[in-house]
Amino acid sequence: MSKRVAVLTSGGDAPGMNACIRGVILTCEQRGYTLFGYKHGYNGLLQQEYIPLYSSNTHNLNQQGGTILHSARCLEFKETESAILAAKNLKALEIDTLIVIGGDGSFRGATHLSHYWNGQILGLPGTIDNDISGTDATIGYYTAIDTAVSSIDKVRDTADAFERIFLVEVMGRHAGFLALSAAVASAADYVILPELFTTESEMLANICHQIEQRRKLKGTVSFIIVVAENVWPGGLNKLADSLTKRANAEVRPVILGHVQRGGSPVSQDRILANTLAHYAVNLVGEPTTNVMIGMVNGNPVEVPLSVTHTPGKPLLKSTLECMQSIMNKRYA
């Protein structure tokens, strides 16, 4: 009997989600599976809002940003009644396997559902934050880095023209992966990360020291500081005001915001998305369930969903050491 598979995208959108959907569609057709797409994340699952998915849905899908299934957050899915309703809807559609593309919140929802539905659940990591444990990178992360770097490069032009200090806030929620990678790639002068944050006074003193050293070397020139969102108490504007007073210089805050979520996915995200999707669909019908398919050292791996949202995924040591080396060499 042919397997029946459903897929949904949940939480914040990420470039490469459409490429992942495409990979699921094509592999399901190769295997002879019937595929449905639930719209609007877990909300669609609760409202039984779905569409059949065929290869005709995949035209130009690999390079499209966003998600054709749309996405949403669903706070009510935390409730027992919601999980029971979702299980009922999946049984009504005779779904054998549910594939969830999303981040840690989406995987928490999948884990919650598993207590009330005995079907197979597979997760695929789709988030620009790269804060999922058990995988080297998440779908959308590489594109978000490129978007942030492009924006920072433009900020650098105007910063040089006016010899100003610019604070550039990038996304990441409570993780510094995007901020760190963007800072290294854009040759930023300083980076503020949640993993390395100490106190406001200590951080301000260190930043001012770096600025003073820079001025001694080259005079009054531009200075770019990349800041991870949510890290500075009171927000970016408060940091700008404090630094203006301490450094006696013009400081301008720039919040990149949701522009980092959009755009056509870069090649790394397209390849990652299709590879993980193909691997996941090939697990359909196997006893493996309640796992995320991640990528470690270039190879797909199966990681228990309960492990993926464990807090404290460590920053990539080599990248962190690179940033610290650059800063110390320039301004110590």
Q: Largest sheet at a glance?
A: 7 strands, mixed
Quaternary structure classification: single chain
Number of helices: 11
Give the end-to-end Cα distance, rounded to a whole number of Å: 68 Å
Q: What would the average pLDDT be, to the nearest integer? A: 93
Number of domains: 2
Q: Percent of residues in helical segments?
A: 40-55%
Protein described:
This protein has about 325 residues and is α/β, with parallel strands linked by helices. About 40% of the residues lie in helices and about 15% in strands. It has 2 domains: about 5-140 and about 265-310, Rossmann fold (3-Layer(aba) Sandwich), CATH 3.40.50; about 140-260, Phosphofructokinase domain (Rossmann fold). It has 11 helices and 11 strands. The protein is elongated. It starts with a strand and ends with a helix.
Features of this protein?
Rossmann fold; alpha/beta; 332 residues; seven-stranded mixed sheet; 11 strands; 2 domains
Give the topology, please.
Blueprint: E1 4-9, H1 17-31, E2 34-38, H2 42-46, E3 50-52, H3 80-92, E4 97-102, H4 104-114, E5 120-125, H5 141-162, E6 165-170, H6 177-185, E7 190-192, H7 200-218, E8 223-228, H8 236-247, E9 251-255, H9 267-281, E10 291-296, E11 299-304, H10 305-308, H11 317-331
Parallel strand pairs: 1-2, 1-4, 4-5, 5-10, 6-8, 6-9, 7-8
Antiparallel strand pairs: 2-3, 10-11
Helix pairs in contact: 1-9, 5-6, 6-11, 7-8
